[in-house]
Every structure is written in structure tokens, then in C-alpha cells.
Amino acid sequence: xxxxxxxxxxxxxxxxxxxxxxxxxxxxxxxxxxxxxxxxxxxxxxxxxxxxxxxxxxxxxxxxxxxxxxxxxxxxxxxxxxxxxxxxxxxxxxxxxxxxxxxxxxxxxxxxxxxxxxxxxxxxxxxxxxxxxxxxxxxxxxxxxxxxxxxxxxxxxxxxxxxxxxxxxxxxxxxxxxxxxxxxxxxxxxxxxxxxxxxxxxxxxxxxxxxxxxxxxxxxxxxxxxxxxxxxxxxxxxxxxxxxxxxxxxxxxxxxxxxxxxxxxxxxxxxxxxxxxxxxxxxxxxxxxxxxxxxxxxxxxxxxxxxxxxxxxxxxxxxxxxxxxxxxxxxxxxxxxxxxxxxxxxxxxxxxxxxx
Length: 356
Description:
The protein is mostly helical. The protein folds into three domains: 1-51, no CATH class; 53-167, no CATH class; 183-344, Intergrase catalytic core (hpI Integrase, Chain A). The protein contains 17 helices and three strands. β1 (228-230) and β2 (235-239) form a beta hairpin.
């Protein structure tokens, strides 16, 4: 008999006592959208304790990975790595109130899964982890998918724990800008977003932040009301570490946010109005993939468009300004400057000579 996961069925089971009102009981059910929505409502109402869904999904992924490990020593190694390295870091990030994105949790789960697969591959050859060599690592990488490279974090951890000799995954050099939108196309998209009132204001703001300000979708999705400073005349939006003045009509578009508000019980949660891009579930922002799909429907390929914006900004501004303005690491800003062919090597020196 299928276990019902519709909201109304779950409420009935809570009422008749056949289902405990706990996160653990809900975790045993199929993770349908209705279940996710109901859980969010119960958290928002204070009936269930708050928890980060991405941390919870990683905990579940770790449990599944450990259940597949048969050898006691391997399970002990994987438990220590998964819980005290991968999960610990994700929890620390959550504790610092830093937004955890679905992709971050997914990458963490992939890291644990690849560690489990590597241990299993060694056991198939009757090899202990402590006896693994770089040749074993290279062979394992050569015979599988690109995801196997995620085992590098496990290998570094094993080395720090003095379980193995120094093993590593060979570094692959990647181009920083593999694809880029033509700049004329980019400006055409920007003009359309700024002028076409038939497009939802939320989609227009998200698109402009990608097209003109090179913002990643993960940051756009987690923008909050307190990132906006509006004195009635000038409106500033905090991007990275810098508060950026929004020109018209962009300022009015930001003032219109959130375009889609949470209603009903979802809208009554304590942080219902926290997000500029609220999602369907109570207290949560819009999913990054939803923003990507909505922009794609407008003909905007987010990654390629952001690349084009970064290349132009990197060609026109010094790396330090780009890092502050866009909220990226200074080293990353330097790499983009090099990719764009910009030369700001004498920028700091020239500023120093101009100082009084």
C-alpha cells in the first residue's frame, strides 16, 4: 500500500495518531512537493523545530552511503570523513547564517558518495585504504565518470589523518570563460528587460542583475529586504560588499519586489517578507533552478550572459573594484581581468602617486 504524502492525507494521519509529528517520521516518507510544503508550514508555525533542508538532505545522503559500506574499517573511515569533515563544514556555514544552496549540498553529497565508491573499488582489489597508492587513484579516475574527481577531498582528509601517504587528484586546468554571449546580444537583452512592462518585475530584476551586474543566480535568489536601502529618492542594492546605486527604471523595479508574495499560512511565517524572491514554501526563497528556468524562457542563458558581463566589467575596471562590486574573491577578479585582456598591474602604483 502506497504511503500517502498529500498534505491533507498527512494531516489526517497526524490527527489519528498513525504518524508522529516529527521530522524523522516525515523523512521516512516520499519527498513530494506536498510534503516539502507541509513541512515548511509546520516549521513556520513553530510546530516542528527549524532545520536547514539542505543540511538535512546531506545527513540523509550520508546515511544512505554508509548503509552501502560493508567493511567495518571502511565504514569507520567514511563515517569520520562524512560527519566530522563534510557535514561539520556545512553546519558551520549554516550557523554563520551563510546561505546554503541546493548545489552546495548536492556537491557535498557527491563527495561522500565518491569516497564510498573509492573504498569499495579498493576492496574489490583486496586493498586497504592505508595501502592505496597514487597508481590506484589514477586507475580509478581513468575508468569512470568525471564525478570521481570529487574523491580528492577524501584523499586530502585521509592524508591529514595519517591514514594514507599523500594521494591526490591531478589538477585539471579549466578556462575561466568557456562560453560568452555576444556583447551586442547582451545589450539587446538588457534594453528589453528595462523597457518591456509585460515581463514580470521579478524576472526583469533577476535578468538585469545577471546581464548588467554579473550576479550569480545563487546570490540573486538569496537577496533579502535589508539588502535594499531606499530613502525615497535614491535606492541602493547591496551586491557583495558594496552598496550599489540603482538607476531608473531599475530602482522602481526593485521597489516592486517581491512580485510574487507568499499568501495564506505561508505568508504568516515570521520571515515571510524577508526575501526579495520568495519561494512557494513558507519562509524559503525562490529555488535557484526556478530562476534559471524563468530566465531561459526569456531567452537568457544565465551562465553565458554572466560571463559576457564579467568580461566587459573586467576589461573596464580594476580587479579590486570588481571584487568589491560583484562580491567575488580578489584572485578570481584578477583571473577575469586576465581573461578579458585588461592590464591593471600599475593601477595601485598610479593611485599611490596621485594621493596627496
